[in-house]
Amino acid sequence: LMIAEKELGMKNRQLLFSAFAAVFLSRLVLLCICMLADTGLSTAEELNRWDNEWYCGIATGGYSLEPMVPNQHPAGDAANWAFFPLFPLLLRVIACLAPANFAEASMLVNSLLFTMGLYLTGVYILKGTKNISHALYFQWIYAFGPYNHYFSVQYTESLYFLLVIGFFVCMRERRYILMGAMGALCSAARNTGVFLVIAIAVHYIVGYLEEGEHPSLYGLIAGAFRQPTLIFGVVLIPLGLFLYIAFLHDLLGDGLAFIHVQRAWGGGMHNPIKTVVNGLLYGAAYDHYCIFFAGLWLISILKLFREKAWPEAACCTVYLLIPLAVRLQSIPRYMIGSFLPALGLLCGYEHWNRTRKILVFAVASFGGIFFSYHWVTGAGWLC
Amino acid sequence: MRMKKVTAAFLYAASLFLMLFYLFTLYEALHPETTHEYRNYYITQTARKWSGNSAYEYELGTPVLFNSANEETCHRMGGGWSWMEETHCWTDGASSELYFEGLPEQDLNLYIHVLLFRSGAYSANIYVNDTFVGEMGPQIMLNGEFCFKIPSDCLDDGYAQVRIDHNNPEATEEDYRLLGAQVAWVKIDDC
Buried b vs exposed e over B111-148: b needs ≥16 C-beta within 10 Å? Predict the structure, then answer.
């Protein structure tokens, strides 16, 4: 037992070191891209673009009482209520600690969160595959893959990635209170965070059906209520969202302002299939680009179901349907930042041969460099 | 063992407390307390433009002119209107809305000046805060001006949502719009 524990400790250290190395080297590549791209802006300005203004605005000035009129919204109806508070809160703490180098410090913190997330990803995959080289491969491909720049800029991606993977690690280890805390933070970070409830529900139901000799609805419900940590963990998940609702109600009189303000971005809730069909038939090239990523996302869901990773698959499905119900925009970013689609896409890679692994890594890294370069030079289609 | 029971009891109690908090917050969220401008634009999405939280303020007797020189009229318009033209604005669709705020709690008159109706078969029912106040149409038009009495009890703290429900709005082969009436101005005044 002691030898096994020692071995596990060694593997964990290896995963931690690998996560640091992968993030360090991939960020070095990102910095090189910034230096090579001749934009006339500082590195921080090159990397922090578009929506980061909203997050920084909330961090420095709080939530607004009325809609504001930033450049991109001439109708004057956009407001920062659409952006969930956890990341701006983190930015505010960073701004207090390092006011002079706020942009750089926040990027460093995001990179550290990404490193922690990658470490937990390694732990999670190691538990599933029992093979450390698979876990290491995933860490590196994720750090160098497409849209990896988002994990170091002033966006929620790093934080959300860390919390989602933390949630799943805790869930699989049945540490339900910690899982609930991760879920609560997730639901304070993004509107999709609260749907982690689905993952734990599926996890519990599958576990019950596998273990129970005579499964029944009564047994299913009673079994859950006999586990106080599970009940508390589940109830904890929506806390972040409900605190934000209570805050908005107090501020504006409308607790659901984060949904209602979507009108400013042309979003209402629609049938996700209709969104895709309309995009295909009437959309521009950018819509087709987003639909391509939605297609990849769908493949990843199917692969997760095939691997019988039921909670991950169920959650991944909801994570795709919600943004699609609103609009096509940002689907690629959500796909990479939500971790689960990437996990699904790489499902079964433990059976790949070395050549295929190298080839996939090379293509992903090329994609990473390509997208990072265009982000740095101000391509709006990468939002 | 005892410690375990105490912990379990605490967790159940905390879960119950959180559930009650969620229910209370949800109830509040479903009963927003906002300005009419906010409600109409963001929540019911009936208002056409966002123009701030005091866009519906109205001074009695001031005609709201529907023409391209008075773009501010759009601030108090809901759905059911076409674009502004030089002298008027067509109603477009089954229902057209206008919003007024700051009205005194007394009986008032609502005046609607119509230049033209789309067809002889057209008619419209006028409602103020969902209370029926009258009917208009080509058969009852004298000089284009219609006057309706707004009873004080149908005003909501000085707020009035004027809704024109159109019967038989028409589109043609050349014009896809469901046209009803050409409105030149609307006014609310003392009786």
Answer: ebbbeebbeeebbbbbbbeeeebbebbeeeeeeeebeb
Cβ-defined contact of B42 to A257 (cutoff 8 Å): yes
What is the band of B70 on the pLDDT scale with cuts at 50, 70, 90? confident
Q: Determine, for residues A263 and B42 on separate chains, whether the beta-carbon distance falls below 8 Å.
A: yes
Question: B41 — contact with chain A (CB < 8 Å)?
Answer: yes
E runs forming strands in B11-130: 64-65, 81-84, 89-92, 95-100, 108-117, 123-128
Q: Which two tokens stand for residue B155?
A: 């005003």
Q: Is the pLDDT of residue A71 over 60?
A: no
The ipTM of this complex is 0.91
A232 touches chain B (CB under 8 A): yes
Chain A residues inside the 8 Å CB shell of B18? 235-236, 239
Residue A5 host element (H or E): helix A2-36
Question: Across the interface, do A254 and B21 touch by the CB < 8 Å criterion?
Answer: no
Instruction: Give the Cα separation of A59 and A53 in Å (integer).
Output: 10
Mean pLDDT of A293-316: 95
Distance (Å, whole) CA A240 – CA B18: 11
Which of A42-46, A326-330, B117-121 has the weakest average pLDDT? B117-121
What six digits make up the tokens of A360? Answer: 């996939």
Backbone torsions φ then ψ of B166, nearest 5 degrees: -90, 135
Cα A245-A249-A254 angle, rounded to 5 deg: 95
Tokens (6 digits) for A363 = 């293509």
Indicate which of A81, A177, A225, A260 best probes the interface with B, i.e. most B CBs within 10 Å of its own CB: A260
**pTM score of the predicted model:** 0.91
Predicted confidence band at A24 (pLDDT cuts at 50, 70, 90)?
A: very high
Q: Are A154 and A88 in contact (CB under 8 A)?
A: no
CB A278 within 8 A of CB A326: no
Tens of pLDDT, residues B8-26: 999 999 999 999 999 999 9
Closest in A76, A245, A254 to B43, CB measured:
A254
C-alpha span between B88 and B183 (Å, rounded): 5
